[in-house]
Amino acid sequence: MKNLELFSVVPIELPSVDYWKEKGKLPEVSGIYFVIRHDGAIAYVGQASSIKARWGGAHSVKLKISEHAGDHRIHYIECDISDLCMFEAYFIHKYTPPLNFSYPKIQANELIRMAEAGAISYKEAFTLLAARLEEFGQNVQDHREAISLLNQEKDQLHHKVMQDLVESFGTVSAAFTQSGSKPKSNHLSSLTEMTSALVDSKIRVLQLEAKVKGLEAMNTRNDANSLN
Quick check: 44 and 100 in contact, CB under 8 A? Predict the structure, then answer.
């Protein structure tokens, strides 16, 4: 089956195995799977690079299903690995399964493919695209404001460190000059404390700079993703 034809599949009509007894019969193929209850309701939708391996190992949905009474079957369909995310997101949004607690975003290029395949209308695709762009714009603004605040905090901290350092060393220097002798123990203690304070402050400045760079990198990635 061509991948675009997957949009029109009816999950209940797909090949299936009994959830409780036949998971070992699942095929070793990449694809989308649907956990369907005895009453025909779709309880969960997922994707896997190997459906058999996915259900042969640990799977968080197993615990969720075990807490629901009744029989379940795992229906499945093969799908190219490159399209797994698109079809999983499409079916989750379409059927809103109760055991899918998170809804993956559909990428802009995937929305266009869905519209071209007739899975959704162009109006729906462009409405979703508009919402994504609005969300992206707000995220960019939020990141810019966060960077601005961090830069202000970094500048204020740097100024305070330098000011405190000049004042403190000035005091110690004057004490040494007036005494005309070797530094007293309390002066050495003050110098040690000032050095520690300087190191701690410098670490804070570096941490703030790292946060700023992280936010700037995030903005760069968001700019790139917006073109997809």
Answer: yes
Predicted structure pTM score: 0.57
Task: Give the separation between CA 84 and CA 47, rounded to whole angstroms.
Answer: 6
DSSP classification of residue 106: P
Tens-place pLDDT, residues 104-143: 888 878 888 888 888 888 888 888 777 777 776 676 677 7
pLDDT digits 0-9 by tens, 48-90: 999 999 888 766 666 566 655 567 899 999 999 999 999 999 9
Task: Note the Cα 192 to chain centre separation in Å.
Answer: 44
| Angle (deg, nearest 10), helices 122-179 and 185-225 | 160
Q: Give the whole-angstrom CA distance, residue 46 versus residue 51.
A: 9
Q: Which two tokens stand for residue 162?
A: 């330098």
